[in-house]
Design goal:
Blueprint (H helix, E strand, L loop, with lengths): L5 E4 L6 H10 L15 E4 L10 H17 L3 E4 L3 H9 L10 H17 L4 H6 L2 H8 L4 E4 L2 E4 L13 H12 L5 H10 L12 H10 L3 E4 L4 H5 L10 E3 L4 E3 L13 E2 L5 H6 L1
Parallel strand pairs: 1-2, 2-3, 5-6, 6-8
Antiparallel strand pairs: 1-9, 4-5, 7-8
Helix pairs in contact: 3-4, 3-8
Length: 276
């Protein structure tokens, strides 16, 4: 039985089978892939798709679990990642932007090449529906769960979109609500590709960021732990807590062959709580 703590999953990148196995081991789904975790809270940190074999299958599973968890009094949340942004930009419907048909077509070609160059799959493209795209476009960029500030990318660039979680989410939602400004979605995608903002000091950058947005620990994905540590992906044993405890990285490199983890949000040390 899953306890009532909040749990998170890092970048899945289309690796549906490892995700289902991890959710089953952790007690979130049964053998048929149905939610059995009652009132538990589970958050996906973005980058559900691309690189791996079944991005749309992962999206379908998360959407289904979100409905089933809500019916059971639980919660399944999901953040917007840079790969969701690239996927959306590559599949903007004709006439959904503020630009001329010619400019729209040129931008669509650029966005599609970018998406494919970063692991986008034709098989996923063929299976995407309007429902998938609408659900992805409505995902929040950030979430605050008690002591934990959840975001996809380990970048300070979220500050460009507001001074609070609500402001950032509203600004991002406005960008993704038609008619779409192509320059704005391009800038947002570039912002969310930045990384390592919290890795170069003893927690000062993370602490300052938390002072702006709330919480006592940043929880993110985006930057694979095995690459960050220079380890073989199979040597990763779980999320990485770093920056003097002010940050936790949940991208365990599943698409690189690393394990997929469904892990509880880390306990924030009392010393950090006392400093905030």
């Amino acid at each position: 039985m899953v306890d009532q703590s909040a749990y998170a999953v890092g970048d899945v990148h289309g690796c549906l089978t490892p995700l289902r196995d991890a959710l089953g081991r952790a007690g979130f789904i049964d053998g048929d892939g149905r939610w059995i975790a009652g009132e538990a809270s589970l958050w996906f940190l973005g980058d559900l798709t691309d690189r791996g074999p079944d991005g749309v299958g992962v999206v379908d599973l998360v959407m289904r679990l979100q409905r089933q968890a809500a019916e059971a009094g639980g919660e399944v949340g999901c953040l917007l990642g840079n790969h969701e942004l690239m996927l959306l930009a590559a599949h903007l419907p004709e006439g959904s932007t503020r630009y001329s048909p010619q400019a729209e077509e040129m931008a669509h070609q650029m966005f599609r090449e970018r998406w494919m160059g970063n692991g986008g799959k034709e098989a996923d493209s063929a299976r995407l529906t309007d429902e998938h795209l609408a659900w992805i476009a409505a995902l929040p960029a950030m979430a605050l769960l008690g002591d934990h500030l959840l975001m996809h990318a380990d970048t300070l660039g979220y500050r460009n979109y507001g001074g609070s979680v609500d402001e950032v989410n509203a600004a991002v939602a406005d960008i993704l609500t038609g008619p779409v400004d192509l320059e704005q979605i391009d800038e947002l995608t570039h912002m969310m590709t930045k990384r390592f903002a919290f890795a170069s000091d003893d927690g000062e950058a993370a602490c300052s960021f938390l002072a702006d947005f709330g919480g006592r620990q940043v929880v993110h994905g985006h930057s694979p732990v095995p690459l960050l540590l220079g380890k073989d992906p199979h040597e990763v044993t779980g999320p990485l807590v770093y920056a003097s405890g002010y940050a936790a990285n949940f991208d365990t490199g599943t698409f690189l062959g690393g394990p997929c983890f469904v892990a509880p949000l880390p306990t924030v040390p009392m010393a950090l709580r006392a400093q905030r």
